[in-house]
Fold this protein.
Amino acid sequence: MAFQKSPGTQDILPGAVERWQYVEQKARDICRRFNFREIRTPIFEATDLFQRGVGETTDIVEKEMYTFTDRGDRSITLRPEGTAGVVRSFVENKLYGEPDVSKLYYIGPMFRYERQQAGRYRQFHQFGIEALGSVDPAIDAEVIALGYTFYKEVGLKGVRVEINSVGTPAVRAAFREKLLAFLIPMREELCKDCQSRMERNPLRVLDCKTDQARFENAPSILDSLDEECNIHFDKVKTYLSDMGIPFTINPRLVRGLDYYTHTAFEYKAEGIGAIDTIGGGGRYNGLVAEIGGPDQPGVGLGLGLERTIMLLEHQEAELDNAHQVDVYVVALGEAAEREVTRLVYELRTSGIRAERDYLGRKMKAQMKSADRLQARYTAILGDDELARGEIALKEMATGEQRLVALASLASELKTI
Ligand code: HAM
């Protein structure tokens, strides 16, 4: 029997991988401009880290983690998200001792045992950023702006930003009581999920799609915020407006991870079946201390790359890296063929993406190959041109053709 990939995983083949490279390149480029530096942490960590970090009562820890015992009898978990590992590394490597705020980013696979549906995988990829060491609401706003700009620069349309404040643990505890007073009388009418969430994490009940209509008169966490929370939230909103980032306030927004304090936000867009959240994040002022570090604040985001790419496809967005090669070199005749091997090597080492035929095909088949690769140019070398030291250069978009000296082809292509 032939093997098949595991459910919820994907092979990313040539043809699709270019979209991944495009999106990853945009992420790296934007991080460079915002001065976030890359951090690479292990794909597996001690299970306790996620239990403590992500939270015992979250869906992730309760039912979605890939956990196993290794040969040394340790409980290991494939990372279900990036924040806990980055914070562990921040503490372990004492990055908090550095004079500046640690602004870090990562791109890589995460693992959650989730029910399969469009946009939901068991191995998926996130682009995430974490800023550790500052309580300044300007960083919350910058993080939100970075995510928004990322979606904009990859070419997605219609991405909405929703923000909320989930307060401090004390604010949340008081709100929890108010909310339970509202929910308990309707307990029997709520769906099974809501009923079990009411016990474990009542704030998440408000997130339920099925029962949304019943929550119209539910108390809002924004009415329970204390002065410190209000000031922080107001500043985040002001900075976002100053930067021209459009957002809406969603007082029901509660994220699926326990570590958030103050700012919580999500990016939403239509086009991936039932799923509309494509990224999210928030502030986590208690997390560093929770996992054994000093009392240091943090804020960050995680954007799903599968969902980004699915939306790009759904919107048929033009990617500016669609051209796979700059030039396809066609040889006609034996002498020309020999020269093409040398010429293609020269082009490639000069920084030009060049391709040629290796199957002894006729000119027409070679031109089709150039089309498939979306070559910007084809360069055609016959024995006659070779004798004159020239090559015919054709721009594929316009069909325009001219002769160029062989010796200057590389420099010519570099300028266009
Ligand atoms: P999260 O909301 O759990 O947050 O995940 C962030 C994004 O990862 C989601 O919005 C979604 O695009 C993608 N994602 C999550 N699960 C799946 C899945 N099963 N299949 C495909 N995509 C998925 C976090 O993970 C936080 N660590 C974000 C953060 C960073 N908060 C602060 N810093």
Notes: Residues 330 and 367 are 8 Å apart (CA to CA). The chain has 14 helices and 16 strands. The two ends are 51 Å apart (CA to CA). The longest strand covers residues 261-272.
